[in-house]
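Re: weekly structure request thread

Next one in the queue (593 aa):
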Amino acid sequence: MQRRSIGQSSTIGLISIVIIYILLISLLLLFAQQLLSEIARGTVLSRLVFIPLAILLPLFLIFSVGYNINKLIKERKNGHPGSRFKVKLVIFFTFISILASVPQGVLSISFLRTTMDSWFSSRLQDALQGSLDIALQYNQNTLQQLETFSQSPVVTDIIEENYPNSDESWSALTSVYPHLDAMQIFLADGSHLSFTGNSDAYLNNLPPTTVEGLLPRVKTGSLTILRSITFLPPPEGIQRNAKLAVVLSVILPHGFDSKAQNITTTLQTFSQYNEFQNIFFLALLIFFSLFSFPILLLSILIGFLLSDEIIRPIVHLEDAIQRVISGDYSFRILTRSEDELALLVGSFNSMVSELEQSRTKLMQSEKVTAWQEIAQRMAHEIKNPLTPIKLSAQRIERAYAQDSPKLGRIIESSVGSISQEIEHLNQLLGEFRDFAKLPTPHFQSTNIRELIVSVLETYQPSYPNIEVDVDSLEQVDISLDVHQMTRVFSNLLKNSFESMEAEKGSISISTDLVRKGHTHYCRIKIEDSGRGIPRELEQKVFHPYFTTKEIGTGLGLPIVERIVADHQGQIWFETEEHVGTTFYIDLPLEQLV
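Done, posted below.
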């Protein structure tokens, strides 16, 4: 019993599509990051290392889709089972993919355009520029205020009035300038005298300068410190040449410089984006195309994969039906699924099983009927020669009883008649034996032209007025039993020669290659211009013991039919009375075992 399994998914194809999809998503993310960073640097599309991959991937998918389309076209031309339905499914899946992707593409492009217009609006740029201006203005104002305050007479008067009480001086100074964060006093020679205020602004050493005014800004961690130095005359009790160096400090808000730098960087990036806005949009369109088109191609490949999954069981069912039609009732289909298809397959297998049982019973019934008919015909054929044998024996008996002077002649004539009928009986029994039990064919590769020509050489010399055409008889090698097929062609050619009236006419023999289902055959055509077969006798040609000849057993064509069937071939004929008869024999080209 032959079985064919269905329902196995195309695992390799599915895994390949998933891997390509993951690769596509990864490239999309990497490409997007690279694109934005390049535009921010002002080097648009100059170092996009993923562009080759973004181009090769669609090319690979285009090749895959093209390969599947070409394969589908070939299947359609060759009439492959299910190819027409597969074409419809692929077109359907492709149409659905396009229908889903086009609105998405239009919406995505519109969204990108709207979003970019919002991103690169003048209000946003003005806000960023305003933030930067405020930060710079605040910094500048703080510096100016610190410098102005440190150089004012107020500082000199307060320090000189309260010296050496630095706490009193600090209270007085902060009441006038609340933004002050620290005050540190040194002697001009660098000796430290006092420090008051936020310890973060403490100076370890007096800055090496003799010029009053702002000192270089200092950044410590996230703090930015602004300082100003003022030189005062020495107060009482200090050497006259020992001036006081007063350092006033203001600490900017926490993280002021880093925030200002962030604003500056953001403004520069925004300006860069704004400058390349059109190029950026074009790059996004290219980016969208490079990755949306492969997704569409992947959808089409999935369509091919799904169509194969849908078509495969249908093709297997069609193939199984063809096998059953050709007479193979042992064919079964296996399925692992538990859906409606499994029910259909189960019903099909049950039907074939019932057909096989019915066919067996029918064949047994036909065999019994056939052998009954053969037995009746055999009894009739044996009875025919027994009658003249009986009459001849009775004639001898009468002549002997009457002592006839012609007894010798009567015996000679009667014995001759008896011998002739016995020979006919032997021939009849021999034909019956051959018909009842033909030997098993022994197949070997044989050139069909050489075989038929060798048979012709036996009969053609006896019919010199009959023209035989073998120009269309090709050199084809077929696996067959040489002895049995020689008998087939001998019988058919002998009938063709004997059907000619006045032994004049023509015989044409040709070969052709045909295909039925999944099997290739060599079709042998033997056409004669003989008497033809009357219409009322056409159905009896292959019946045992039917013959139109005066001398014949009627087993020649049944034996021919049996031999052709043993070669897994077919034989039939077309005839028209007084025009001629054409016999066709289809022999499979595949090696038989």
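The chain has four domains: 2-121+271-325, 145-262, 340-436, 444-588. The two ends are 17 Å apart (CA to CA).
Next request, please.
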